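[job 0412] stage=complex_fold ligand=iron/sulfur cluster status=START
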Amino acid sequence: MNCNKFSTCRLEKDYETPRCNRAKLDTGTFCNYDCEFCYYQGDLDKVTSFDVIKDRIDILHKYGITEVDLSGGESSVHKQWFDILDYCNERFDHISTLSNGWAFAREDFLVKSKEHGLKEILFSVHGYDEGSHDDIVRRRGGWKKILKAIELAHKHDIIVRINCTVYQRNYEGLLKYHDIIKDLKPLEVNFLTLNYWTNNRHADPIDYVKVTDSIKVCIDNIKDHVKYINVRYTPYCYMKGYEKYVCDQFQHIYDKYDWNVEIYSLDIDVSRQYSEHEKIDMAYDTATIRRMKDYKKPSECLSCKYLYICDGVENEVKQFIPLPVEGKKITNVNYYRKGFYDC
Ligand code: SF4
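[job 0412] stage=complex_fold status=DONE, emitting C-alpha cells
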C-alpha cells in the first residue's frame, strides 16, 4: 500500500510565505568532472547550444522569474559561458551558478564572471578533505581547486553556498565535515540525501538511519556558524527534533535559494501572465504530481503526524522502515519552517 495516493488532500496551501522565484537554468549536461553519483552519467560529453539555452532563458523571463541558478553539468565550462551570463544579466536581477569550483579557482575567470553579472556560487563539497572529496568527484586536484575558488569568491564578494550530496560513501565523513564548513563560511549548507531521479542507479542504496544520524551530528556542529541549513528529500521521522531543516517537495516551493518548482520543466504557456495565487497553485500541483509519481509511504505512515507534510521515500528505495510519530496530523507545509528565511 502506498499512502501517498491521498496524503496531499489535507495539505493547507500557504499563500502568505513568499514562494521561490529563482529558477534552474539548465545549461546542459557537459562537465569536466565525473562524480560517482552524477545524475547524468553517459551524457557528460554532450554540449547544449547557446541557442537552446537562450530559448530556456526567454521562457523563464516571460514567466516572471527574477533570479536564475545556472546548472549543468558544469555551466562554467560551457564555451559560451560569458555570453550566457550576459544574456541572463539583461533579464534577471540575480545570477547564481552551481559549480565544482574548477574554473573559479582562476582569479581572472572569477572576476570576469562577476563583471558579467555572476553574484553567487553554490559549490559542491562532498568530502571533508582531499582524499574523501577527490575520490567522489573522481578528479585529482578537485579539492585544492574548490578551496581556492571559495577563498576567491569571498575575496570578491560573491555569495558562497554549499551543497553536499550524502550517501553510503560519505556519510561517515560528515562526522568530520564541520571543521571545513566552519573554515569555508558559507551562507547556506544543503544536505541532499542521494536520490534516484535519473542515471545514478549504480550508487549503493541509502541507509537512512546511518545517513541521517550523521547529518544530525553535523548540523549540531555547524548550526551556530551557518545561517541556513536544509536537508532535502528525507523522511521526517528520521529527522525528529530537526524538522525545521527538512525540505521535501512542498517545503521546496518556499526555499528561496533553490529552484522554482512550477517552471522547472519549462512546460508552461508563457503567452499569458499568471497571478501569484495561480503560481502557488501550480507549484502545489507540480509537487503533488512529483510526490505521487516518485515517492511512496507504507501503511504504517497512516498513523504518523507527519503524514501530509512528508514525502516518504523514493519508489526505488528497497528497504525502508518508517518510524511513525503519533500525534495530531500537521497540515501546514511550513509548520516547522515559519520565518525560516526571515532572520
Ligand atoms: S512514518 Fe511515514 S509519514 Fe511519518 S515521517 Fe516517516 S515516512 Fe513520513
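The longest strand covers residues 159-166.
[job 0412] exit 0
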